[in-house]
Amino acid sequence: VKTMKKLLIVGLLISLLFSFNMTEAKRRLKKPHINGVGAILINAKTKRIFYQKNKHKILAPASTTKIMTAILALERFNLNNNVRVRRPATTREGTSLDLCPNERLTVRELLYGLMLESGNDVAAAIAIYTSGSERKFAKLMTAKARRIGMRRTRFKNASGLPAKGHYTTPYDMALLARYALKNGHFAVIVKTKVKTISGSRPGKRRRLINHNKLLWRYPYTTGIKNGYTRAAGGCLVASARRKGVNLIAVVLKSHTKYTDAKKLFVYGFRHYR
């Protein structure tokens, strides 16, 4: 009987000590200060939210829009399909792959140009190839968003250039990223740092460098897409993997988007220590 009492007391003491240590650990794990107007951090597998700031606030997504453009192309076409670039696609402003009218690239090459170099002309080329016009393609994008569960998102173009009625939220973009990363081809493309594809003329090549600087600044990064316009500010949808844990961070309208995302990942992975 005395032995049983001693064991119960020891067990109780261990339990109290463990509870105290856990409470102390949680107290020390302060939430990071994020400059972005909207932000969220989720577990990619469970959708558990570790951090949120204005997660349902309506904001402009800039070029993170291209995540949707990419996934629609991946779900509709063979990567080896040849696409002839239509002239309207070559007139898009902003970041560009300098596509030429009637040049041909594979869907795979276009997707690398879309997600690494963030070509607005590439986004338009994919939209026109898919739907005949960017306006019709945008309707497909919004319809897909609803099926994913993005209730506060609407698309007006394939690139993310400023447009009235083109908007999303941090939470919706996290859902989109989670969905897109389940596609193996997408996951490979968005974590690629450098890629060489066909040039505009025979014998010429284009060397693409991923604009997502977090791939170089945070070692556990696995993608996805950055963006910027004057109206939207700095935007970033990013993923990271450490010790089998996959996290997704979204930062919208921030002048320190990469720092914000890194802070979120550091904070999130500490929850698993």
Summarize the structure.
The protein is elongated, with a radius of gyration of 22 Å. Helix 4 packs across helix 5 (134-148).
Notes on the protein architecture:
This protein has 273 residues and is of the alpha+beta class. 40% of the residues lie in helices and 21% in strands. It is built from 9 helices and 9 strands. The protein has helices spanning 2-28, 66-76, 107-115, 120-131, 134-148, 170-180, 184-190, 214-217, 257-270; strands at residues 38-43, 49-53, 82-84, 104-106, 194-198, 205-209, 221-229, 233-242, 245-254. The strands form 3 sheets. It has a 5-stranded antiparallel β-sheet with strand order 2-1-9-8-7, sandwiched between helices. The protein has a two-stranded antiparallel ribbon with strand order 3-4. The longest helix has 27 residues, at 2-28.
Looking at this protein, list some descriptive labels.
single chain; 273 residues; alpha+beta; 5-stranded antiparallel sheet; 40% helix; elongated
